[in-house]
Amino acid sequence: MLTKRIIPCLDVKDGRTVKGVNFVSLRDAGDPVELAQRYANEGADELVFLDISASEEKRKTLAQLVRDVAQAIDIPFTVGGGISSVEDVGILLENGADKVSINSAAVRRPKLISELAKRFGTQCIVVAIDAKQIEDEWVVHLVGGKVTTDRQLFDWATEAVERGSGELLFTSMDHDGTKQGFANAALKKLSEMVSVPVIASGGAGNVQHFIDTFTYGNADAALAASVFHFNEISITELKSVLRNNKIHVR
Questions:
Q1: How high is the pLDDT of residue 32?
Q2: pLDDT value at residue 55
């Protein structure tokens, strides 16, 4: 049985880790390199680094900062934000990223997923999907949630996997930062539809939420930010509780 993964997320803006609610009202959460090192030491399975304003500001992810984080940790490291070409991915992998997360550029040009999978292998391509419920439909949003599309979560997720995504990172914009739990019904449906791991994102507020997303949501991994950044949940203690609930973690 595959073990479930705990993944802290560093949302980075202007070189600092930030965290908001429903993708807005950002507040400072610390130095990304220091946080990355702390999470690796605490037993995080992987780390996700998202340059959250790169797409909106039409610039590339900060390669130097990616290199600094990579040198500070010894766990798999996924980087996203502003990635739109094979060249972008090559630079990030050269600077220490193990995987890349693509979002806005993939929706705008789905063929990008196929190009990246062919060049670098599906195992290092993560398609991130930000979606919110509008009239009972999960609608995909771009550019840090600022642009509404005509794509629907489950259709887009299926297409992304068919094109070569090795993992899906689904963030519920409705749940993001609310600490009310993950979107488990949508996660369960997603995990049943696709053949690749699904990472749950948006809504972690306590240890029970992690238990729920692994049991009811069938998530393969759970990503969280503020509960780790502000010391509300210890990764070490979280894993201990998960084991006690017969959830397989590393």
A1: 86
A2: 47
Residues designated as active site: 11, 130
The gap between the terminal CA atoms of the chain, to the nearest Å, is 12
Helix (H) or strand (E) holding 93: helix 86-94
Amino acid identity at 42: E
Q: Residue 45: helix, strand or coil by DSSP?
A: coil
Q: Are 222 and 213 spatial neighbours (Cβ–Cβ below 8 Å)? A: yes
CA separation for the pair 54, 58 (Å, rounded): 6
The SS3 assignment for 144 reads coil
Q: Residue 102: what pLDDT?
A: 95
In order along the chain (250 residues), what is the average pLDDT of each group of 10 residues? 91 69 52 90 94 53 84 94 91 94 95 98 97 95 87 98 98 90 98 98 96 98 91 95 96
- Distance (Å, rounded) from C-alpha 138 to C-alpha 34? 35
Here the contacts of 204-207 (C-beta below 8 Å, separation 24 or greater) are 204/179, 204/233, 205/178, 205/179, 205/180, 205/181, 205/232, 206/179, 206/233, 207/233, 207/237, 207/238, 207/241, 207/242
